[in-house]
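Retro notes (design track)

What went well: tokenization of the new backbones is finally stable.
What didn't: we kept losing track of which sequence belonged to which structure.
Fix going forward: every design gets posted as structure first, then sequence, in one message. First example under the new rule, 289 residues:
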């Protein structure tokens, strides 16, 4: 290690920079740009630091590395690459807000800091990227809920819906429906069933497997609250049943709680609320294709 560092330090800075560029050229010539994104970014960033004018190329490579890290859920690395890329990005560039959005998501996932999410939504909206802005609003709603800020979560849903109000069906609208349904379900609002069913329909139509799983999970939760245990089990196995209203109590008010109390005494049997039903709820959603 010491011999390598000494030898590397003895090479003139300009020559070192050029060697880094040639290394990046060779790496990119191998194909599979996504797999080699971080390595190419490292060499181009090093060349730039050594005085070689490759700022545009280094910026693009750092952004590709950030996207690669994001896809792998390497949030610290995503944050680092986004910071490096933004240092080279023109403030007025129309694509800069996408990097800001990726950094905002990574900062929340890595550090629990949601402060950058709202400004990133504004930045995307300003350049006309309403679909991306609305999708980020759904993410921000979830972040607000996790922080115990229910009013902010609801406001983010409203903000996102206003951005895509003219679109009948889109990935962002489906994401907003899924998050709205989850928020409603968490407070046992009977509207959660209907909204989750709409989210499931949109996710299936658009082929969004992860959103489909989220919607099914929400439907299972709502139907568990309503005491519809067989339908809950169907949802956990990747299926859904037609929406029907929750039962009404004798006073006419809609019930949002299970008709069969989930008492420990019932968990050991085979009926609703039994160990079998809880086992099904714990199993991951399957058959999403």
């Amino acid at each position: 290690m010491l011999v390598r560092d000494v030898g590397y330090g003895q090479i003139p800075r300009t020559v070192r920079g050029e060697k880094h560029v040639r290394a990046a050229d060779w790496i990119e010539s191998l194909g599979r740009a996504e797999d080699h994104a971080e390595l190419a970014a490292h060499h181009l960033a090093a060349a730039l630091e050594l005085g070689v004018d490759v700022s545009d190329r280094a910026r693009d490579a750092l952004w590709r590395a950030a996207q690669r890290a994001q896809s792998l859920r390497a949030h610290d690395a995503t944050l680092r690459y986004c910071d490096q890329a933004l240092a080279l990005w023109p403030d007025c560039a129309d694509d800069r807000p996408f990097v800001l959005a990726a950094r905002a998501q990574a900062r929340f996932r890595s550090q629990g800091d949601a402060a950058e999410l709202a400004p990133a939504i504004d930045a995307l909206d300003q350049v006309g990227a309403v679909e991306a802005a609305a999708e980020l609003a759904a993410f921000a709603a979830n972040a607000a809920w996790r922080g115990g800020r229910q009013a902010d979560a609801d406001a983010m849903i409203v903000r996102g819906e206003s951005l895509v109000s003219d679109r009948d069906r889109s990935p962002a609208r489906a994401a907003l429906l899924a998050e709205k349904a989850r928020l409603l379900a968490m407070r046992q609002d009977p509207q959660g069933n209907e909204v989750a069913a709409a989210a499931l329909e949109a996710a299936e139509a658009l082929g969004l497997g992860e959103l489909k799983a989220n919607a099914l999970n929400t439907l299972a939760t709502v139907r568990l609250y309503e005491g519809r245990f067989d339908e809950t089990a169907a949802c956990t196995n990747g299926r859904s049943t037609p929406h029907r209203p929750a039962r009404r109590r004798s006073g006419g008010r809609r019930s949002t709680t299970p008709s069969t109390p989930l008492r420990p005494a019932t968990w050991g049997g085979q009926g609703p609320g039994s160990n079998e039903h809880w086992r099904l709820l714990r199993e991951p959603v399957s058959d999403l294709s």
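Added context from the reviewer: Confidence is low (pLDDT under 50) at residues 242-274, 284-289.
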